[in-house]
Amino acid sequence: MLSNQEIVEEIASQFGNKVVDFEEPFDLLTFTCQTENLISIVEYLRDHEKLRFRFLTDITAFHNPANTGNELCSVYHLHSFENGIRLRIKVFIPIYNPLVPSLTNVYASANWMERETYDFYGIQYTGHPNLKRILNLDEMDYFPMRKEYPLEDATRNDKLDPLFGR
Amino acid sequence: MSKIQYKYSPDNLSISEPVKYDPTKLKSEEMLINIGPQHPSTHGVLRLEVVSDGELIVDVVPHLGYLHRCFEKHAESLPFNQTIPFVDRLDYLAAMNSEHAWAIGVERMLGIENEIPKRVEYIRVLVAEMNRIASHFIAIGTYGLDIGAATPFLWLFRDREIIMRMLEWLSGARMLYNYIWIGGLFYDLPIGFEEKCSEFIAYLRPKLIELQQIIIDNHIFIQRTANVGVLDRDLAINYGCSGPVLRGSGLKYDLRRVDGYSVYPEIDFDIPVGEGKMGTIGDCWDRNYVRVQECWQSLRIMEQCLEKLTKEHKRTRDFDPQALVPKKIRPKAMDFYSRAENAKGELGFYFKTDGKSDIPQRVKCRACSFNNLSILPEISRGMMLADLVAIIGSIDVVMGEVDR
């Protein structure tokens, strides 16, 4: 059974100061890296004979307007079946130039998850074979999960209809 | 702040139904077939664009989003407890499992997961397993219907109806329960529920044997599903599959055992995996076989829960399942990923909170059906068109969860 400390040592010995901000909230190893190192780090984690992070659980993103210059963050959750251990990678990117390299050549599951993240946050995954909206309409011209788009006011009454309610 | 308003234009109708392939640029033998979104065998509003060469499938392009309900945006605008009804509507066939996943996630963030009374935990597991059986019954029954067997569908719906009625007795709703609350339950079990549940288990055992005989061991069914839609184990891992799809491919991986959340570590059950008894490991038959075996295991889990609920953690007059429900749910600033084994696979919730408000900053639902569906083009290329229906049914997608 690997401990988080051993993984940190493995990654730090390979990538040095390219990976920063190691944390362990609820024993889930979290670190941050730069966009240009993302693919090499993930490939290293996948192909390492001891770590073997073969399962890409999830790709998502969040938007934090207060963090100027790093508004968007692409979050990856990896899982290793053999060790039963998970980790999380964060990549911060500016909102005016949201470019992140695509992981579709590393994990096939990244295809749809990156399309979904692009759909909601507008993160451009460079190298993705078919980066189109997946859940929303193709002709939408905004990215609805960003914080500048609030949910519709539930108390508005200009749409009230005597027959059908709202 | 500018007002966002979706403008209607007649052109939208043509661009809202996009096609990846241009019909005029296909090769001379190829044909573009549109299946869905309103088609009984696509299990909801899934639209498939199929390029076929005679009977052979050249490519399949799934088009999603017909049931998109902005779950994540709603969850980011409401306190945690008010999101539970929305969580029900993700996987509406196994709503209890989704509620359970949400509740244990928020409880861990609050740090109260060890204070939950054992009786509450056992009731949660009991109802979640009941709902898992109901969900698998729909999967197997409609799968039989898809490939031409109408009888098992009617039989399974008859038995599922008992589960639905019992859960209605329990919570007041047939499918969307809002029963598992953060820190507790809506109500304790109704009086007599345990006895009825034991009767139901005794009733269902012979029915499962019948089910095995009529569909799983049926020669026509085997001919129709064995060696069809073979999903290799490495491919399944690469595409992020989970649940019966991954176990059908031969990997013994179940979060109830791996993570051991709730009271699952105290319960004895097996993890069935596909063995390739009728064909290759990971074919459609294996996936369905795993589902049937999981129903048996769920019955075992229910029996053990009932044993505990009637002996060790008995109903008492002053037991209040709502006693620990927090008045204010405000976790500290953190990132948290919680996951649980749903009927369809690994259901995960990624929370990001700031510690200053009751409303999460970010909620992401990692939907198992979404990832399971993404293998469909990969395993159906080169198969016959009739097998496409068999493959969709064996993946068991619920569009409410795919589209969220």
Summarize the structure in words.
The complex is a heterodimer of chains A (166) and B (404). By secondary structure, chain A is an alpha/beta fold. Chain A has a single domain (4-164), classed as NADH:ubiquinone oxidoreductase Nqo5 subunit (Beta Polymerase, domain 2, 2-Layer Sandwich), CATH 3.30.460.80. Chain A contains 3 helices and 7 strands, in the order αββαββββαβ. In chain A, β6, α3 and β7 form a beta-alpha-beta unit. With 404 residues, chain B is α+β, with helices and mostly antiparallel strands. Chain B has one domain (71-402): Cytochrome-c3 Hydrogenase, chain B. Chain B contains 16 helices and 8 strands. In chain B, α12 (284-310) runs parallel beside α15 (385-395). The model of chain B has no long low-confidence stretch (mean pLDDT 86).
Provide a concise account of the structure shown.
The complex is a heterodimer of chains A (166) and B (404). Chain A is of the alpha/beta class.
Any idea how many domains of chain A? 1
Q: What CATH architecture of chain B would you give?
A: Orthogonal Bundle
Total of helices of chain A: 3
- Rg over C-alpha atoms of chain B, rounded to the nearest angstrom: 22 Å
Instruction: Enumerate the spans of chain B where pLDDT stays under 50 for 5 or more consecutive residues.
Output: none
Number of separate strands of chain A? 7
CATH homologous superfamily label of chain B:
Cytochrome-c3 Hydrogenase, chain B
In CATH's first tier, which class of chain A applies?
Answer: Alpha Beta
Blueprint (SSEs and pairs):
The complex is a heterodimer of chains A (166) and B (404).
Chain A: H1 4-15, E1 19-23, E2 29-33, H2 38-47, E3 55-63, E4 72-80, E5 85-93, E6 99-101, H3 110-121, E7 124-126
Parallel strand pairs in A: 2-5, 6-7
Antiparallel strand pairs in A: 1-2, 3-4, 4-5
Chain B: H1 10-15, E1 30-35, E2 47-53, E3 56-63, H2 71-75, H3 84-88, H4 95-110, H5 118-146, H6 150-171, E4 180-181, E5 184-185, H7 193-216, H8 219-225, H9 233-238, H10 244-248, H11 255-258, H12 284-310, E6 334-341, E7 346-353, E8 362-366, H13 368-373, H14 376-380, H15 385-395, H16 399-403
Antiparallel strand pairs in B: 1-2, 2-3, 4-5, 6-7, 7-8
Helix pairs in contact in B: 4-5, 5-6, 5-12, 5-15, 6-7, 7-12, 12-15
